[in-house]
Every structure is written in structure tokens, then in C-alpha cells.
Amino acid sequence: MDIKNKIAIVTGASSGIGEATARAFGREGAKVVLAARRVDKLQTLAQEINSMDTGTETLVIQADLSKLEDIQSMIAQTLEKFKRIDILVNNAGFGRLDWLENLDPIKDIQAQIDLNILGVIQTTRQVLPVMMEQRAGSIINMCSMAGLVATPTYTVYAASKHAVHGFSEALRREVKPWGIDVSLIYPGGVVTEFTQHAGIKRKTNARTPKSMLLTAEQVANAVIKLVKRPRRMLIIPWLWSVTVFMNRLLPGLVDYTTIKRFTIPEREDELKIR
Ligand SMILES: NC(=O)c1ccc[n+]([C@@H]2O[C@H](COP(=O)([O-])OP(=O)(O)OC[C@H]3O[C@@H](n4cnc5c(N)ncnc54)[C@H](OP(=O)(O)O)[C@@H]3O)[C@@H](O)[C@H]2O)c1
What we know:
By secondary structure, the protein is α/β, with parallel strands linked by helices. Helix content is 51%, strand content 16%. The protein has one domain (7-246): Rossmann fold, CATH 3.40.50.
């Protein structure tokens, strides 16, 4: 797909990957709909994109994407201004990464399900009739390595991203005949605000190696490439594919090493007390 003059909705555009993706669409000359809750951040970004000399335009929409009425309003406003929707990047999402018994049933568990799963499904559901009518469209769903390999403290987040994986796989096979492409992207660790909201309490140094960390711009560039040349799935950095392969081929070994190298060292004190 040639991106110039196309209408692209980017959810979660107020920071991190979404912000970088919206900027990248602006550079390509697309008309970009910026959606998230922090409208001041969206407006600042919109000003920056509008000043690009690429023929780009923006529409800022304050929306809580865990709420159906906000999603419906976002689509209605987009159609009112631009009349069509060519690209949807379902990016808004967050993770609360702690032991399951520490997660708050509503603020952590329900909220992740509402945004990461239902937000993606309901937004796609609202956009789909428009793309079907057009007989064209590109949907990019922001998954995660946690959508392929689930690690301790990622229970609910991993469940939500596995759901995005299953949803997108079925959708891709449903809508391809209508000229709509569905691509999934699985980034490893990305340096964004994500960790600030995740509530991680690590005792050990168990972290993504620095050499494997991505910038939001790298993920944004990958999104642009997927719009231009859709793919079923894209794992970045590529090296994480080895972990996916190991998890499929030797899950018992991955269980053993994860428990020995992560779960037990992290919980050693609690295990002794109990
Ligand atoms: N960072 C990583 O390591 C990583 C790795 C793999 C995948 N991902 C995925 O990448 C996506 C973007 O994350 P990020 O790393 O860029 O994190 P981020 O900087 O925290 O961005 C999250 C975005 O989602 C928006 N958002 C959160 N709750 C929302 C709600 N209820 N309604 C509307 N928007 C909401 C935030 O905007 P407001 O707060 O203004 O609403 C923000 O724009 C997520 O789906 C995440 O799961 C991240």
C-alpha cells in the first residue's frame, strides 16, 4: 500500500510506540488520527506532525479505548472528517507485571483485559464495515513476545496478547478476500513509558539484555513496512524467534530453566518464610 494521503488511525498515540508510529505516518504523508486519553500530549504531537512538509493532516481524539462508546465516537469523528479509513494500528495497551496473587482484580486484571483484548476487538469491529465497503484496508495489531512465550509475572498480560494473536489469525483468514490485510507485530522489550506503568518489582537483575532492547522508532518503522508490505507476523528483534522455537520444541526445558533462573531466585525469601 502506498501510504501517502491514506487515512491512518493510531491508538495509544500519546507516547512510546504509538507516538513514534503516528510521527512516521506523518513523514509518509498520511492523514493521521491520534487517539489516547492524554489529549494534551496528542495535541503537542499533532502540532509537530502538522508542521511536516509532506501534505499530512491530523485529527486528535481523546478516547478511553476500553470503553465502547469512546471507540464508536472515535470512528464516527474519523469518518466525519476523512470519509474513509485505510489503516488501523491497534497499539494502545499496557501491562501490570507482578505475581498473579498481587494483581488487583479490577485495576490490574479487568483493566488489561478491557483495553488489550476488548479494545482491540471492538475497535476492529467498528472499522471493519468501512474497510469491507472500500474492499481495501490494512490492520496492524500490536502484539508482544508475551503473545508467543509467556513468562512468570506476565500472566494476564500474556493472556491478553495471546488473545490478540488468536483474534488476528482468525480475522486475517476472514477478511483477506475483502482486500483487507491483517499483520501482527511481536516486539521484544521496547524503551517506552510501558515499564513505568507495569509495577515491576524485581529483586534480581533479570531483564531484557540491553543489546536486545528496541527504540519506539524501530518498532514504528517496522509498522510502516508492514503497511507497505503486509506479513502474517513479524518478530523483532529477529533473535527472539529462537526463544519461540525453543518454547514450541522443548517446553519442558524452558519451564525448568525459567523456574530455576527466574521464579525461584525472585521468590527465594517468600519461599523460605512460607
Ligand atoms: N514497551 C515494550 O516493551 C512493549 C513490548 C511489546 C509490546 N508492547 C505493546 O506496545 C503497545 C504500546 O506500548 P508502549 O510500549 O508504547 O507503552 P506506552 O508508552 O505506555 O504507551 C501506551 C499507550 O497506550 C495508551 N493507553 C493506555 N491506556 C489507554 C486507554 N484506556 N485508552 C486509550 N489509550 C490508552 C497510552 O495513552 P494514554 O495514557 O494517554 O491513554 C499510550 O499512548 C502496547 O500494546 C504494549 O503492550 C510494548
